[in-house]
Design brief:
mainly alpha
Amino acid sequence: MDYEQIIDDCDSVVSFKEVVGGLYLRKYITTSSKGRHEYDPEVMLQLILFGFMENIRSLRQLEKACRTDIRFLYLEDRIKPSFMAYQRFIDTKLKISIDDIFTVINQFLIEKESINTQILSVDGTKIEANARKISFAWKKAILNYQSKLFIKITKQLRSLRQDLPGFHYDIQDSYQAGSLTAVCQQLEAHIEKEGINFVYGQGHRKSRIQRHYELLKKHRILH
């Protein structure tokens, strides 16, 4: 069956395929010269990522979608992986987590399409069309990503306040990369003043201040 003739050009799966087609997904996949892949690894990753975008987090639900949802049939090139096949793929083939890959894609879209996430409406519809428009489903995904990131940052700052009572930074509804840089600089000054040494590698236990600093620095980069 030619699914391209059935699926509407405005469907989110079309824009998804367009976006991932412009990315080198194989760099996130561990390759091996021994034996054959159970399924095409790039197709497997596409199916998982599209499921992620559609808020399908259960591998059993993903298996079902690949058998019944025409959009997944459009992506899967006639393969129908079981939930166990997905689990093996995630456990043995991916270099980084699905969350991290999805974050990279969102950041790629924000930069490529010059998306100003501060002016998007809550439902993601009030956005000017670009020459190569990406469906609002992707922009909803970006909003969801940033919303979850802001929640993580707030949680981290509250935890930091408990561990470092002298630390002062207002909890906000949203955060700019520049403001997170200021937080990191405050922490750097405290770390230098107290002579706190960072440790790395197995057998070394990181201090809570080091963990706070590294997480906030990561959030600043992902912002």
